[in-house]
Design brief:
CATH topology: Immunoglobulin-like
Structural class: mainly beta
Number of strands: 12
Strand content: 35-45%
Order of helices and strands: EEEEEEEHEEEEE
Radius of gyration: 17 Å
Largest sheet: 5 strands, antiparallel
Number of domains: 1
Distance between the termini: 12 Å
CATH architecture: Sandwich
């Protein structure tokens, strides 16, 4: 993650963890971007939401919740969330499915960028119609199913689950 991306400029998003991990048509809760990491000392972020209820979308200001040091770099941590009624509007307004398993959520504006630089935020989406796949352990570091392979890498420099930025 950040150790491998030491050239990431301050103010640029690095990763986030999506909650729920995959959006589907049955989801009725809030959506949260937990541990949204931004390189450097960034107090606020500007976000342009894809909410279709407002003609030009919704402009939000996110406040930093904490700072951390990762691999010798200072990062700012954000944790934006949206209530169920906003989630339903955004998901219902976009086409997604097997061949396009993402929902466009909006765009983060990089602080102090001139001209403005934005980074799109895409959330993972899935179908409730997919059959369950039973996972079987192959080794202590690898498991598989009929159509999925998962290799666990326990390195402090690699952290999964970030998406879209």
């Amino acid at each position: 993650m950040l150790a491998a991306a030491s050239s990431v400029a301050d103010g640029h998003p690095v990763s986030f963890e999506q909650e729920p991990p995959v959006l589907d048509a049955a989801w009725r809760g809030e959506v949260r971007l937990r541990d949204l990491l931004v390189a450097g000392d960034v107090a606020t972020l500007q976000f342009h939401s894809a909410d279709p209820a407002v003609e030009d979308g919704v402009f939000e200001t996110w406040e930093r919740v904490e700072t951390r040091t990762i691999a010798g770099r200072l990062v700012s941590v954000f944790a934006p969330a949206w209530p169920p009624h906003v989630v339903e509007r955004i998901v219902a307004d976009q086409r997604h499915g097997f061949d396009y398993p993402s929902v466009y959520w909006g765009a983060v504006t990089i602080p102090d960028s001139d001209p403005p630089i934005t980074r799109s935020v895409w959330l993972r989406a899935g179908s409730t119609g997919l059959p369950r796949a039973e996972s079987r352990a192959s080794t202590t570091r690898c498991s598989f199913a009929s159509h999925v392979v998962n290799v666990v890498c326990r390195s402090s420099a690699i952290r999964g689950s970030g998406s879209g930025i």
